[in-house]
Amino acid sequence: MLSRTDRDRGTSTPRQSSTSLAAPFPSTPPLPMSGPSAAVSIATISGSTSSNASTPPTTTAVSTNTTIRFRTGIRNTVYDAMRDRGWKETDGDMDWDFFWADVHWIHETFDHVYLQEHQRINHFRNHYELTRKDLLVKNVKRMIKTIEKEYGKTESQKFDFLSPSYVLPGEHALFTEEFKRNPGSVWIMKPVGKAQGKGIFLINKISQINGWRKDVKGNVRGDRDGEDGPEAYIVQRYIENPLLIGGKKFDIRIYVLVTSYYPLTVYIHRNGFCRFSNTQFSMQAKDISNLYIHATNVAIQKHSPNYLSGRGCKWLLRNLKLYLTTRHGTDAVNELFTEMEASVVRSLMSVQKVMINDKHCFELYGYDILIDQNLKPWLLEVNASPSLTAETQFDYDLKHSMVQDCFDVVDLERRHTGKPIRARVGGFDLVYNDGPIRHERTSNYASYLGCYQPIPRAPRQKKRFGPNGKSTVPSTPNRKSTSSPVISISVQNAAVGVSVVPDAASPR
């Protein structure tokens, strides 16, 4: 007899996925992740590759309501997208079909409620195994050890997408030894459970983090006399050679949708974007503390004296891809974007065994990736609640379209129940379904990430919400989709500019 929690998950014990590390290798040698010809190598350690992979049809109970009832506490693009689908908001505790919940509700309440067959929610129970910085590092390190033991060092090196990292105060001694081997190196300190750049700072001296040092008895300052100890931090080797455009640092936001961990089912959206700093990059000692140089988070950059609120600080990912292609060539850029996609999937494989799968859950993650001057991608962090508040009208249109695509994949309206899994839904491409997806477009696989995807105008203007959560800007009548606007790139006098222009017809 299943427990209440097991019934809620829809299974008595987690099913062993076919992507188990114990599975044998394919009969053909795995392709290396070193170029666009690296077709299905995202799972060289998985033992399975699936072409046009599909999930057996299933029949689920359908809500008796003709209109989806949703619950949420947010008032941003997601709220607008749900209303634009004709869904109706409800404030009932459990009288809903879909709940866009915050992570606090997941942590405090989810384990104490029973979900009916048709109800869906936007987080997995222990999403923090992926989205807490310290747990992500722990799970990836464990995966590397497992891969090296089972398949050798060459295979384990494919999981080298995190900068060297240590959790403080627990690993202060290990970090000290590493720091002594590289004196004068720069490291970045990040709180393990915060986002939007809160609490981060750079160091280049070990004395700058004495507050996390343990004494000879293993105690940390604050552990004694009932005082609170230091906040848990992760310290990572700072990437001192980031790829620059216009002399400024940027990172990339990618939207990743996971609909299941058993089997692991992953979609990646084509329309990500780049976030730029507004100050010239510098590694001089006097600039170490300047977060306007080193942090690309919009929450930080919008306070920069160089920030232009009407233009924002973002570029469409597709335009970055075109820009890099003109400077580094198609092969190098395809290799880079394929490796970014592979890093996403490998990070999810690293947490698959510890993640609590639940048929009621899906999750939209925001992956932050930095590219260095050697065109190597580094995973910075994974956000469980990526910001979906827009800076500009074009930013609003992009996020509105992406969220609508997300809901189309999740299919709460049950339009595709019982049908084979879809390889593409709007801008979301299925990249992994119990094994990597081999696209038929080409024998030499290159990621669809950053490929052309129209961005229709949202049926309302970007909103600015007041203290009471109500819009201060009236909605506009529905507008037909126009030619997809894109963010143009201009690098003049080492200044990054962003503007919206119509996009010419472009092949995928």
UniProtKB/TrEMBL annotation:
Compositionally biased residues, Basic and acidic residues: 1-10
Recorded GO CC terms: ciliary basal body
Keyword tags: ATP-binding, Ligase, Nucleotide-binding
MF terms (GO), sorted A to Z: ATP binding; tubulin binding; tubulin-glutamic acid ligase activity
Record-level GO BP terms: microtubule cytoskeleton organization
Ranges of biased composition (kind: Polar residues): 11-21, 469-486
Region (Disordered): 1-38, 457-486
Family: Belongs to the tubulin--tyrosine ligase family.
Entries under PANTHER family matching the protein: TUBULIN POLYGLUTAMYLASE (PTHR12241), TUBULIN POLYGLUTAMYLASE TTLL9-RELATED (PTHR12241:SF39)
Stated name of the protein: Tubulin--tyrosine ligase-like protein 9
